[in-house]
Amino acid sequence: MPNRDPITDARLLRQQITEAERLLWSLLRGKQVCGLRFRRQHPVPPFILDFACVSEKLCVELDGDYHDLQPGKDLDRESWLRGKGWDTIRFSNDDVIANPEMVAIAIARHLGLEYGFTKRSGGISSVADRQRIQKDRQQRKLNE
């Protein structure tokens, strides 16, 4: 990605969300996990964090296969963020896709919190809701 304004880059990344990011965001958004407010694609120049809980200074990073090829770069990034007071926790995309709620539980435990989930009002909240809606849509298309 070309170096531009970090806010512009973050907006672009929000539009190009991966399936793993979409699943985890469906749990983290709206203070659903332990009442914590998370932001997605949060700029901390020169970096953009996948998910950030600013109040706890926690960076949640989701790693695709390409991260296996750049462990030194990831460690340098974590070190820089640690110097700015940020803690980083990493998960693979595969872990999130397999069980997004377990990832949310791990985030709560990492912060020393008892996991609690409160469904947000007025929207699709959980992965199960999204799957149910998707199945309903597919069934309606088959019936048409």
CATH topology: Endonuclease, Chain A
Strand content: 15-25%
Q: Domains counted in the coordinates: how many?
A: 1
Structural class: alpha+beta
Strand order of the largest sheet: 1-2-3-4
The CA-CA distance between the termini, in Å, is 42 Å
Give the CATH level 1 class.
Answer: Alpha Beta
Gross geometry: globular
Instruction: Write the CATH homologous superfamily.
Output: VSR Endonuclease
What profile does the largest beta sheet have?
4 strands, mixed
How is this structure best described in words?
With 144 residues, this protein is an alpha+beta fold. The protein has one domain: VSR Endonuclease (Endonuclease, Chain A). Helices cover 47% and strands 17% of the residues. The chain contains six helices and four strands; from the N terminus they run H-H-E-E-E-H-E-H-H-H. Helix 3 (71-83) links the parallel strand 3 (58-63) and strand 4. The termini are far apart. 17% of the residues are buried. The mean pLDDT is 85.
